[in-house]
Specification:
Layout: E1 2-10, H1 18-21, E2 26-35, E3 38-46, H2 50-61, E4 68-75, E5 80-87, H3 96-102, E6 106-107, E7 111-114, E8 117-124, H4 127-137, E9 141-149, H5 153-168, H6 172-183, H7 195-202, H8 206-229
Antiparallel strand pairs: 1-8, 1-9, 2-3, 2-7, 3-5, 4-5, 6-8, 7-8
Helix pairs in contact: 5-8, 6-8, 7-8
Length: 230
């Protein structure tokens, strides 16, 4: 098992230029993948004053590789926004995670974005997988290798335990609403249902269902964020 840590200036991606428009904002890619031509990405953006949240969301949604951007939640005290992105990648680039997964390289922590570069740390089984991944990454950007070493599995397992605990800490009602949303395709692209349809299935109003989803998402995303602190 190998841990491959690298930085990539991702040509044509929003990560390449977000620091120019919002120099104080730090972003974390919670997940990102491409499905039948559409990319689905969830990011955590910190150091975002409330007055600039809408501006950031609008900028992301208007980027050439994106079609929509939606604010999922905002924590005023922490100046932190969770933002959902969808894109069609009509340019020559693609999500970094696509390259990693098709070469059997799996992220150990969410990727961070700073100074126009995405920072990734992944696990791979062989040097051949790392070499193939590196070559494909060079097709979509400029890559710098930070380390290739044996992984710290203890740190990884601790982070996964915290995520599992966050799921277990959901209230029965939050778990019920979140499970239904997943089962009904709410998080798929295109969505299998919208918030109004979820509310009808739940015999509740949309604001109640939306609040349960936001609280559930926040608990799980905060646990993911703790892996970065470690």
């Amino acid at each position: 098992m190998l841990e491959y840590t690298f930085r990539i200036r991702h040509d044509g991606c929003w990560t390449e230029t977000v620091h120019e428009e919002f120099p104080d904002v730090a972003a974390t890619i919670i997940y990102s993948y491409r499905l039948t031509g559409t990319s689905i990405t969830m990011i955590e953006a910190t150091n975002v004053p409330e007055a600039r949240v809408e501006e950031l969301v609008t900028w992301l949604g208007s980027h050439e590789v994106m079609t929509t951007a939606q604010l999922v939640s905002y924590h005023d005290a922490r100046q932190t926004a969770f933002i959902s992105l969808e894109g069609d990648y009509r340019t020559d680039t693609e999500p970094v995670l696509n390259v990693l997964l098709r070469n059997n390289c799996f992220p150990t922590i969410p990727a961070t974005v700073s100074n126009g570069r995405e920072h990734w740390s992944v696990l791979a089984s062989t040097h051949a997988e790392v070499s193939r991944t590196h070559e494909e990454l060079r097709d979509i950007g400029s890559v710098e290798v930070d380390a290739l070493r044996q992984p710290n599995l203890g740190r990884l397992l601790t982070g996964l335990t915290e995520i599992k605990q966050a799921v277990q800490d959901l209230s029965p009602r939050q778990m019920e609403v979140l499970s239904r949303a997943i089962d009904e395709g709410y998080y798929e692209s295109p969505r299998g249902c919208n918030i109004e349809e979820l509310a009808e299935m739940d015999d509740a109003n949309t604001s109640t269902v939306g609040e349960h989803l936001r609280r559930s998402e926040a608990k799980i995303l905060e646990a993911v964020g703790s892996m970065l602190d470690g």
